[in-house]
Amino acid sequence: MNIPPRYIYCVLVTAVLAVAGYFISSAIAIGILIGGLISPLFALCGNAPQHSVSPVSTPTPVAFAKSSSAASAAAAISEPDESVVISRAEYAGEVKTIYVGNLPYRANEAAIRKLFSEHGLVLSVRLVKDRDTGKRRGYGFVEMPAAAADAAIAALNEAEYLQRTLKVREANEKKEALKPEDESANSAEL
């Protein structure tokens, strides 16, 4: 039997690894030695399974139970992926925060992002939740570039979304919470 140079290379690498493994544990060294010598022998004898990779794979047909599922899947595939997300910190232009009221409770951040992205870039979506229950409270805030925000307000205010009439306007500035010393000063004046 003619021993190919590839097997000799495998034996040398196995021997080096076995010696290195001996310093850790003799059991590791024996395992490396046996595995390193036996595996190439199987490859030489042809007992090892031959794996071939075909360059072109044929698509597997998919059957849908409902035709509406097939239609929605086809629509989702044909729509361009517009899931580019830019955070407010990465955006250099003027940003406006939009208040969105009378939201359906079943609407989530992704649905609101999709709704507003029809009118421009959406930087962030925050839907307010009840602290005790964790359920959505029916309003939220969307951050967009100023021009896109104005277009979204004009298009979506009083628009119907999931059987609810949306209230969309520019958000008010956050009010500063009263500090403890301010509260004591206000109560002393009364």
Explain how this protein is built.
By secondary structure, the protein is α+β, with helices and mostly antiparallel strands. Among the domains are: 5-45; 95-170, Alpha-Beta Plaits, CATH 3.30.70.330. The chain is 43% helix and 16% strand. The strands form two sheets. Strands 2-3-1-6 form a four-stranded antiparallel sheet. Helix 1 (5-24) packs antiparallel against helix 2. It is rod-shaped. The termini are far apart. The model has no long low-confidence stretch (mean pLDDT 75).
- Kindly report the spatial arrangement of strands forming the biggest sheet: 2-3-1-6
- Which structural class should the secondary elements be placed in? alpha+beta
Q: Determine the fraction of residues in helical runs and give it as a percent range.
A: 40-55%
User: And the CATH topology of the domain at 95-170?
Assistant: Alpha-Beta Plaits
How would a crystallographer describe the biggest sheet?
A: 4 strands, antiparallel
CATH class category of the domain at 95-170 = Alpha Beta
> What is the CATH superfamily label of the domain at 95-170?
RRM (RNA recognition motif) domain
Rg is 32 Å
Enumerate how many helices there are, as a single number: 6
The pLDDT mean sits at 75
Name the shape in a single word: rod-shaped
* N/C terminus separation: 106 Å
The amount of beta strand, in percent, is: 15-25%
Total strands:
6
Order of helices and strands: HHHEHEEHEEEH
Q: Any idea what the CATH architecture of the domain at 95-170 is?
A: 2-Layer Sandwich
User: pLDDT below 50 for ≥5 consecutive residues: which ranges?
Assistant: none
